[in-house]
Amino acid sequence: MTAATFLRIGTRRAQLVGCLLLVALVVSGCSGGGQGAYIIRPHYFWDSLLSPSPTIVNAIGLTLGISVVAQFIGVVLGVFAAMGKMARFVPFRIVANFYIWIFRGTPLLVQLSFLFFGLQTARVFMWPSVVFGPIDILPEILAGIVILGVNEGAYMAEIVRAGIMAVDPGQTEAAKSLGMTFRLTMTRIVLPQAARVIIPPLGNEFNNMLKTTSLLSALSIFELYTTFSNLSAVSFAPFELFGACAIWYLLLTTLWGFVQSWIERKFAKGTVGSQTQGPGWRMRLMGRTSFDADARSLGGH
Amino acid sequence: MNPSKLRLLGVIAAASLAVGACSSSATPTPTPAPTPTPAPVATPSAVAATSPTPAPLPTVPATELITAGTLTVCSDTTYPPQESLDASNNPVGSDIDLAKEIAKRLGLTLAVKSTVFDTIIPALTGGSCDIIISAQTITADRQAQVDMIPYFAAGQSFDVLAGNPDNINTVMDLCGKAVAAETGTVEADHIAGTGDYTAATSLSGQCTAAGKQAITLKVYPADTQALLALHAGTVVAHFTDEPVVGNEVAQSGGSLQAVPAMTLERAPEGISVTKNHPELRDAVKAALQQMIDDGTYLKILTTWGVQSGAVTSTNS
After folding, report:
1. Residue A158: is it exposed, middle or buried by C-beta count within 10 angstroms (0-12/13-18/19+)?
2. Fewer CB in 10 Å around end: N or C, chain B?
């Protein structure tokens, strides 16, 4: 039965009820009846979600911190790489293209393994630990952030380049005719307008970054995944704990989704067609059902 | 009721029949167990060169195996010399050879599944394999989950970079430093105070009790990665089982050295079987005991250089 055929059976509501029943049947039929003797202990699941231990809270904080800093590094490197790609000075173009080629062409895990374990073992480069006031960043966390950031920069370069190209060339011409330097043009005219095009894919990239930090388990960084993996090893409850881990990631990415919509709305202010919604509930409460200065919609007679 | 809803109900009914099959086949039906013939101790003939005939071992009922006729073994093959993968990704090691011999004696073919150590017990209880032979130290925590048959003994041992640049000679020298171990091992528990250990009995706890800084534990999914951390200078010592340390140092070509004075807690390691497979457990135990009694066990261990971990009985 194809999806198309399935979707034609019954009404939407009946299909939804059917799917839920199916899931309930599968879960009830298969739980606890397997070949082995795994006992499901729900308290591991609920405790790690509703009353997370300090270890888990620290891990979430570390995941968020690493994601934000790495994404920031990625955006900065992406902007420079994008401008380098579009530069007229050939060596800039070569450097930018080489950087993008290398870091988009190799898997992140291989980059982490080579740039951390590879370089350190051969004593080519030892990652230092840095101290930011009270915060002491271990060498592998520094390595994780930097490598994630540099990897991200290669992808951000394309996104930033698309954003810059989306800005009307007339803007750059007008800026030049006003006598603005390249730096002033970029920072005051082009990039702020490019930002609106960059935000949605950037939001997507940050969503990915939140989840990609789980690869840092290879460096024994106790972010969210490593923490839950270690907990499940000690408690022999991978079903409950990895389920809870998934839900924590879902929470983080969903929250980011809300933040992203808010940012997009802020950047869209003052643009054509940004008013896709009518008056809010307060105005509607007072009788103003549309923005048109039409007497009828103003609750008039 | 409209025809489209009727069709949907039909689909649900068909699906529930399929799901019903899922649960019913899985419930283990208790079969009347054939009384296992007691295996008499094989007496090595003192005069002639005739090898003693192996006594008949109890057969494993097919309901206690995932695949009838096959002994599926879960093993964390990142642990030479006990279990590892050779260049062609075939499992090799003293534990693997022991598993081969046990399977042969029980008339089963051997299938080895490489499994990550920190989820190896859930893999067993979840039905991915029949037994685990993976250098698992017998702990109360693990015995609460599975039955364990003693088959080997090993201490917990450290190795460091050649020349001992960080001067690690006693446990107290580790205070304030980082040590690498594999996730889910007793070594990781011993440092952090998890599993069978408490904060007081842990190595890190001993440091803090003496007023020094705690030991930073770095855990990795595979023991080979923990060794990599030592080579990379991220940690000052690799904490793992004694035979593994011996093997690593021997294979390192001079870049590693063991710290023999710091070998701790010689403890038995066990073959794990789920608690609801008593006949499989008894059969494996009997096979292993037979191998111990007729010398095959010691021969296998000597081939791999781990004879110092030999046990004489499968009784805990």
Report:
1. middle
2. N
- Predicted TM-score (pTM) of the model is 0.75
Report yes or no on A189 lying in a domain. yes
- Cβ pairs A/B, distance under 8 A: 119
Q: Give residue B137's domain range.
A: 62-154+267-309
Nearest CA to A197 out of A266, A264, A253 is that of: A264
User: Residues 17-46, chain B: which have Cβ within 8 Å of A?
Assistant: 19-20, 22-23, 26-28
Across chain A, the runs of DSSP E, i.e. the strands, are: 130-132, 135-137
Residue A236 belongs to a domain: no
What's the structural domain count of chain B? 2
CA distance A77 to chain B (A): 28
Domain range for A203: 57-225
Asked if residue A3 belongs to a domain, the reply is: no
CB-CB contact of A112 with A214 (8 Å): no
Counts for chain A of helices (H) and strands (E), in that order: 14, 2
Distance (Å) from the C-alpha of residue A154 to the closest C-alpha of chain B? 27
Q: Which residues, at least 6 apart from A111, have a Cβ–Cβ distance to it below 8 Å?
A: A103, A147, A150, A151
Residue B30 inside a domain? The answer is no
- pLDDT per position as a tens digit, A229-245: 989 888 888 899 999 99
Q: What was the pLDDT predicted at A270?
A: 67
In a domain, B90, yes or no: yes
Q: How far apart are CA B141 and CA B267, in angstroms?
A: 14
The answer on B235 and B179 residing in a single domain is yes
Number of structural domains chain A divides into = 1
In the predicted model, what is the mean pLDDT of residues A272-296?
A: 71
B253 and B271: one domain? no
Same domain, B142 and B289: yes
**Is B149:B281 a contact under the CB 8 Å cutoff?**
yes
Q: Give pLDDT, residue A297.
A: 52
Question: Residue A81: which H helix or E strand, with range?
Answer: helix A54-85
| Chain B residues 195-254 within an 8 A CB cutoff of chain A | 195, 218-221, 225, 228-229, 231-234
B278-294 vs B94-105: helix axis angle to the nearest 10?
A: 110
Chosen for mutation from A53, A236, A240 (greatest number of chain B CBs closer than 10 Å) is: A236
**Are residues B232 and B284 located together in one domain of the fold?**
no
| A86 within some domain | yes
**CATH number of residue A140's parent domain:** 1.10.3720.10
Compute the radius of gyration of chain A from its Cα atoms.
Answer: 26
Q: Are residues B76 and B168 in the same domain?
A: no
Determine, yes or no, domain membership for B17: no
Write out the two tokens for B135: 């250098």
Give B186→chain A minimum CA distance, Å. 10
∠B194-A51-A245 over CA atoms, to 5°? 70
CATH code, domain carrying B271? 3.40.190.10
User: Do the beta carbons of residue B85 and residue B77 sit within 8 Å?
Assistant: yes
Q: Average pLDDT, stretch A1-20? A: 70
Alpha carbon of B7: minimum distance to chain A alpha carbons (Å)? 7
Q: Are residues B173 and B253 in the same domain?
A: yes
Chain A, nearest residue to B6 by Cα:
A10
Residue B95 forms part of a structural domain: yes
Q: Which residues of A touch B118 (CB under 8 A)?
A: 229-230, 232-233
| ipTM for the predicted complex | 0.71
